[in-house]
Design goal:
EC number: 1.1.1.169
CATH architecture of the largest domain: 3-Layer(aba) Sandwich
CATH class of the largest domain: Alpha Beta
Strand content: 15-25%
Domain Ketopantoate reductase C-terminal: 204-324
InterPro entries: 6-PGluconate_DH-like_C_sf (IPR008927), 6PGD_dom2 (IPR013328), KPA_reductase (IPR013752), KPR-Related (IPR051402), KPR_N (IPR013332), NAD(P)-bd_dom_sf (IPR036291)
Largest sheet: 5 strands, parallel
Structural class: alpha/beta
Number of domains: 2
Order of helices and strands: EHEHEEEEHEHEEEEHEHHHHHHHH
Helix content: 40-55%
Domain Ketopantoate reductase N-terminal: 11-177
Catalytic activity: (R)-pantoate + NADP(+) = 2-dehydropantoate + NADPH + H(+)
Shape: globular
Length: 333
């Protein structure tokens, strides 16, 4: 792809949610002219009005090329920014964007469908059925073209085409085989040029588990209680539940040869410092949208069950969150 400051290839962001708008806006500010894949009325709205991002640097307005995947053709880099439960359908929709050289960068929550790929025969071809029950994603998105990621961008979609983030933006990236590569360097350069802090992980699954734990001990709890992150980790009763969930899942992480990148107390304290921010799961619940319980909670339980590890508190909180999700969606309907 050449020098990072000379990149002239095609970049596409798929999904105009909070993360998608944030990434597209930052790429646009760097002069990288991203394409944006959207659906329905969002296409016309963004064509007329562009996209808008409020971040620590202020307000940014960008005009981007927006349409369906078939409007753009094969891309050099594709950022996938869906809710995790939308990945199977998105995998079908984005096929016009993917050529043999396309770098695919999924920015999703939870245990990713690619978790057991890239490590040879170590896991005997395991799949994560909670996130890819019909193997659609794995069939349609070549793992050799995927860059593993974790996203630390606390963004909120305010309305169509508009997002806000009030914290620094961080991404961790890594090859699925944990080896360094030139394409990782190129991607890191593009993201840094766009004002996004990037870390290249030597063990991407450790980064994944660290992010999964952050989500697991906060998202479903706040969906049940309505608490902000500051309240969840500042209230002694809620913080105790989150702490117990964290310690429950540590044997699962170890059973799959990984470890957290941060001390458990540091994870809990970092959640408290985020303050009056609503988790994405709580935001989805309030809007009557499906919750990302499959990738964040069900997949962890699936992996625990495979190793015979009991997670009673995680299982109980997950079950209540599932009920809450169904109940809220009935109310909205």
């Amino acid at each position: 792809m050449g020098n990072r400051d000379e990149f002239a290839g095609s970049i596409c962001v798929v999904g105009p949610g909070a993360i998608g708008i944030t990434i597209a806006a930052r790429l646009s500010l760097a002069g990288l002219a991203p394409n944006l894949v959207a659906r329905g009325e969002s296409i016309g709205f963004i064509k007329r009005n562009g996209i808008r991002l409020f971040d620590l640097e202020g307000e940014h307005h960008s005009q981007v090329s927006v349409g369906r995947a078939g409007d753009f053709g094969p891309q050099d880099i594709v950022f996938l920014c869906p809710k995790s439960q939308d990945m199977p359908e998105m995998a079908k929709d984005i096929q016009p964007l993917i050529a043999d050289h396309t770098m695919i960068v999924p920015l999703i929550n939870g245990i990713p469908w690619w978790y057991f790929d890239g490590e040879g025969d170590r896991w005997g071809g395991f799949d994560i059925t909670s996130v890819d029950p019909d193997h659609v994603i794995k069939k349609l998105i070549p793992s050799r073209q995927v860059i593993g990621t974790t996203t630390m961008i606390a963004a909120e979609r305010l309305r169509v085409g508009t997002a806000r983030t009030i914290h620094p933006m961080h991404l961790t990236i890594g090859e699925l085989d944990d080896h360094p590569s030139k394409r990782l360097e190129d991607l890191a350069g593009i993201l840094r040029r766009s004002g996004i802090e990037v870390r290249v992980a030597s063990r991407i699954r450790d980064a994944v588990w660290t992010k999964v734990v952050r989500n697991l001990i906060s998202n479903p709890v706040t969906a049940i209680t309505g608490a902000t992150l500051g309240e969840n980790f500042g209230d002694k009763h809620l913080a105790s539940i989150s702490r117990q969930m964290l310690h429950e899942v540590l044997p699962v992480i170890a059973a799959y040869g990984s470890k957290l990148e941060l001390d458990p107390d540091e994870i809990l304290e970092s959640g408290r410092r985020l303050g009056e921010i609503k988790t994405s799961m709580l935001q989805d619940l309030e809007r009557g949208n499906p919750l990302e319980l499959a990738a964040i909670c069900d997949a962890v339980l699936e992996l625990a069950d495979r190793r015979g590890i009991d997670l009673p508190i995680v299982r109980a909180i997950t079950g209540i969150a599932h009920f809450k999700s169904r109940d809220r969606r009935r109310d909205v309907a």
